[in-house]
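Morning, I've got a small favour to ask if you have a moment. I owe you a coffee for this, so here goes:
>
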Amino acid sequence: MTHQSPPPLRQPGADPGRQLAQLHEALRLVDRIAGREPERDADALIDEAALVSAAYDRAPPIVQRRFDALAGETAGWAAAGVEALLAPAGRRAPPRAAADRLAERLDLALSEMTGLLRPEGTAIP
């Protein structure tokens, strides 16, 4: 019996920095729905995406797989959450409390993703 590693979870051409940037854009949207001001500007997010891509390329394969799994999982539930917030369900505006909770969870997931790639002494925010 031989052991074969599973295929990578990352889609061909999917860039970790791009994935992170897309999730940050979703967070900015959810923040606006929740009535909160985004914490960082777009330029800072672009810089962070570049740092994440570079750190991902240097990370061991097991860390890359964990990042890919977390990014895929986060993208799935974040998309479902945004869709639920934006879907007209007989209400005029999305519920701010639900948007606030989704923003908190998304922020935690993004922090966990960057934390995976942050070796001691690096400058990933």
User: Anything to note?
Assistant: The radius of gyration is 16 Å.
